[in-house]
Structures are given as structure tokens and as C-alpha cells.
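Researcher: We are triaging several targets before committing to wet-lab work. For this one, the compound of interest is fe (ii) ion. I'm pasting the protein sequence and the ligand SMILES. What I need is the predicted three-dimensional arrangement of the protein with the ligand bound, expressed as C-alpha cells, so it can go straight into our comparison scripts without reformatting.
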Amino acid sequence: MQYGQVLDDKQLAPSALPPARGPLTNALFDLLTRAADRPRTVLPRIDEGDDDPLFGDDSALALYALYELHYRGFGAVDVTWEWQPDLLSWRRDLEQAVVRRLQDEVGPLPQQPQIPDALHALMDDADGPSLSGFLQERGTADQFREMAMHRSIYQLKEADPHTWTIPRLAGYPKAAAVEIQADEYGDGVARDMHQNLFGLTMTELGLDPSYHAYLPLVPGWTLASVNIVSLFSLHRRWLGAAVGHLALFEMTSVEPMGASAAALRRLGFGADARHFYSVHVVADAHHQHVAADKLAKGLVNQQPELAHDVLFGGAAVMALETEAARRMIELWERDRSSLLGDPALS
Ligand SMILES: [Fe+2]
Ligand SMILES: [Fe+2]
């Protein structure tokens, strides 16, 4: 694949359900393979067992699959499961447990923060390890590939979660969100959609760019960061957090994207492999200001009571990205893979 080409329909199509990982996904996936018109469905209580609702492999995959019903869905799964009431009620229990865990991870935040200053302060205070910095300095090509397999879960649907916020916004912040999202979708040119550019990078790395190709290999702590953006964006109650999430995402992008491009150059990969990262260095130099000053601040100007949630959304990104980087680097330093299975066996 070269720059200019677009992932083919087979690569873009919904995937099969991944293998189950425990009691929650066993029961859920068993249900999803049936018709959705069953009168009552029985799913296990989500607090049974000792899986962590936020980072646990079983819980995070269950929530990821439930959210996927709102995106492309899964090939053989009846589309009407998307709004099946028993499933939604079970998801609500799981979401409540996830939010409690997320609040633990993030810790206390000021009730009436100044936005965007408080978002900038989050970035200034960050002291976690840098994954892109590690890759730039001393990562191997296989470690870069591994990072891309983790990221593929989000990047191959990049922008889609935040798009749910657009109909919930109005006026200036809505226009700011549309400005950012239009760029994310390549301004309507399929070749330039960031989702497609990540597929190009994956191809150049010798990886499979098909949607969900690596879902079976990705641990709960990676799925958690995709789950929280779906959670924030699908609930109007979490509109502030969804906006804070997008703002911090854009505000913290330029440096890691530049470091990733530098890592690829050091490892001998060409311009097509680096294109996704180079585009972000330029685009996010602008997006960071739109996101902080027009979107996040614009929303808080309209609805000051959302300031705390905006900061919470930003802090959640920081907490989960730091956790993922810490786990990945720690495993690599012990010469271990950060994936659930050996990719060669998949
Ligand atoms: Fe992007
Ligand atoms: Fe961006």
C-alpha cells in the first residue's frame, strides 16, 4: 500500500467476535451469536469474580464489544442487539463500575477549575514514562510494531468516538469540534482520513491493517483507553469529559507524534510509514489551540458547571496513557511482549 491508496472493503468490514476471555465475555458472546428477540436474557453479575472492571482483560473486552455495537458491529451479530434493553442495563452496571475505578485512578480534582489553564497544568505536572520517547531512543522495530498493534484498536476508528459529541454541542464549541473532526476525516478525502493513514503505517510495518485484526491480542489496559472515550462520548451526561478528553488528546499530540516519526526514521522506515505521524505534527499544532481555547473553554463558557468534568476527561486520558506506557515499557525492559499471545500464532 502506498500513500494515495485506501484500505479495501474487506479490510474495513466488521470483524468476527474475538475469542472470549472469561465469564463475562463467554456469556456475552454466547448471547450475541443468537437472535436479539429473545424475551429475557441472563448475563452474569458484573461484580462476580475478581476481574478489574477498568483494566481487566475480560471486563474491558466485554465493554469494548458492547460499544462496538454502536460503531461497525460484528459480522455475524444481529444489529438489533444495539438497543436491546437487557444488554443496555447490563452495560450500565459495567459502566458504573468503570467510572468508580476511573475516579480512583484519577484522584481528587478541583470542583471549579479554570479551563483551559487546568488542562495545561495537567500536562505540566505529568511525570510518567514516555512511550514514544522510549521508541525514539532505543525501541526496536518489533516494539514499534507491538505499539502499533495496541494503537490499531483506536486509530483504525480514530475520530469516530468524539464525533458523537457534535450533536450534543451548540454554537462556537460545536463549530470547533467540527473543525477538528473534519481534519481527522481528511476533509472528506478517503485517502487522507487519519484512520486510513494509520492503515498505511501498519502496512508499511508489515502488519495487517484490517479492522480488529489485533483485537484478540490486546490486553484490557489498552482497551480501557478506548472504552472511556466511547463511554464519555455516548453519554450526554459525560459531555464535559468527552470534550476534555479530546482537548487533552490534541494538546498532548505533537511531541509524541514527532518522536514516533523520528523512531521510524531511525529504524529505516520510509515516508509512507511516517506519513500518519508527520500529518499529526502539523495538524495538531493547530488542533491543540482549537481544542483548548475554542472547544473546551467555549463549552465551559456556555456551561460553567461542566468545568470539573472537562478536567476529569483530560485527567482520565493522562492516567490511562501513563498506565499503558508504564506497563508496556516495563514488559519490554524484561524482554517480554505486551500482547496477550504471540502474534505469530494468531
Ligand atoms: Fe488524527
Ligand atoms: Fe488532531
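Researcher: Any quick observations?
Model: The chain has a mean pLDDT of 95.
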